[in-house]
Specification:
It is a single chain. This protein has helices at about 15, 30-45, 55-75, 75-80, 90-115, 120-130, 145-165, 175-200, 205-225, 235-240, 250-265, 290-300, 305-320, 320-340, and strands at about 275-280, 285. The protein has a two-stranded antiparallel sheet. α3 runs antiparallel to α5 and α7 (about 145-165) packs parallel to α9 (about 205-225). The protein is built from 14 helices and 2 strands, in the order αααααααααααββααα. Helices cover about 65% and strands about 0% of the residues. The relative contact order is 0.12. By secondary structure, it is an all-alpha fold. The protein binds Phenylacetyl coenzyme A (FAQ).
């Protein structure tokens, strides 16, 4: 459903570049030469690899974005994981288990990609568990009924793919390569959600009402997932100059709205926005105002489920300590055995 973004032109135009954040310049001639080479790589749209020299600000930005992304994947397992024991059939249960497991896998690819930048998994997890690191706002809302699981697949995974397809062309090689596999899997997640909703929409009046209720609760939160409007997005312009971000927050949001409206029509649900209408002149759907105060309250830890999500994550980490200890002990034993055999 979402493959169109691989070849959209980049949008790093002059007006936006004028708002570039200040990044410290090179300190000496040797560093200036390294910086010049890095700029050439970026301008030629080649990949930066872990062993290449890169400006500290580029490294920091990537660690920030990739680790937040990894945290989102593993915290994102919780709202749907909550429904595994209550899935309405064996088929839906098997699909949901596989999906939630995939999200855990995405977290692992992304933590591994961030580790290539010199940060450790422990450091990243400390950031998450202490509440210092961000993760996607969308996972701080409750999953109240079974239709929420379908809507997360359709809309949350749908928004995630829209944002992630351009990341397959990110300038940092390990992140770009991780995103290719992630996007393929997310595409199945999106379709399974949509298919589950299609089935419910052919069911009873109560089932249809459940779907509409879930859409009503999730629509606006999904639009906010793309991040603040471009004018209020402090990281966007530099991220685009570096080829990390390829399409701006607002442009991705618009692409998501345009792609989703026809899907809602096929499904037979109403998107809860009286201002949503086709604008012939723009060639896009117009849509209403997003509640940014609510978004920032959620991002800053005060959403309906922030405390519970974090507490569940911390508990899972603590209770999983014995698994990590056992894996390390096993690795040590294997290493000793190999050393003995080699001696
Ligand atoms: N939630 O200047 P910008 C998924 C923060 S994966 C929380 O625009 P940037 C899979 C932002 O970090 C979903 N915080 O920032 C799945 C920054 O704060 P900072 C996650 C947000 O980086 C599906 C500040 O606001 N995807 O769903 C959010 O240029 C189903 C200013 O914003 C990714 O992480 C938000 N929604 O653009 C799993 C994709 N938006 O760090 C389970 C990779 C913004 O300066 C079930 N990330 N902020 O303190 C990105 O593409 C970018 O980082 C953006 C934000 C677009 C999220």
């Amino acid at each position: 459903m979402y493959t169109q973004s691989f070849n959209v032109p980049d949008d790093a135009g002059d007006a936006k570049t004028a708002r570039l954040k200040a990044v410290p310049g090179p300190v000496d001639a040797a560093e200036a030469a390294l910086q010049a080479h890095f700029d050439t790589v970026i301008d030629a749209d080649h990949k930066v690899e872990p062993r290449d020299w890169m400006p500290e600000a580029y490294r920091k930005t990537l660690v920030r974005q990739i680790s937040q992304h990894a945290h989102s994947e593993i915290v994102g397992m919780l709202p749907e994981g909550n429904w595994i024991s209550r899935a309405p059939s064996l088929k839906r249960k098997a699909i949901l288990i596989a999906k939630v497991q995939d999200e855990g896998g995405h977290g692992l690819y992304l933590y591994s990609a961030a580790e290539t930048l010199g940060t450790s998994r422990d450091q990243m997890l400390d950031g998450l568990h202490s509440g210092k690191a961000k993760y996607s706002s969308i996972f701080n809302y409750p999953t109240l009924n079974w239709a929420d699981v379908g809507v997360i697949g359709w809309l949350v995974d749908g928004a995630a793919i829209m944002n992630q397809i351009p990341l397959c062309r990110c300038s940092y090689g390990p992140y770009a390569r991780a995103m290719i596999r992630v996007c393929k899997e997310e595409s199945f997640h999106q379709r399974q959600g949509y298919e589950a909703l299609l089935v419910m929409m052919q069911g009873t009046a109560e089932q249809k009402a459940m779907v509409q209720d879930a859409v009503n609760r999730y629509w606006w939160k999904c639009l906010a997932m793309f991040g603040p409007p471009d004018a209020d997005s402090p990281n966007s312009v530099q991220g685009m100059r570096w080829g990390i971000k390829r399409i701006s927050n607002d442009d991705l949001r618009q692409k998501f709205v345009d792609a989703t409206v026809p899907q809602a029509e096929v499904l037979g649900v109403t998107l809860p926005d009286p201002d949503l209408k086709w604008n012939e002149a723009r060639g896009h759907y117009d849509y209403g105002q997003i509640d940014w105060d609510e978004f920032w309250a959620t991002v800053n830890g005060n959403g309906p489920m922030n405390k519970e999500r974090l507490a569940t994550r911390v508990k899972a980490h603590e209770q999983g300590a014995w698994v990590r200890d056992a894996a390390l002990a096993h690795a040590r034993k294997q290493q000793q055995r190999q050393q003995k055999e080699a001696a």
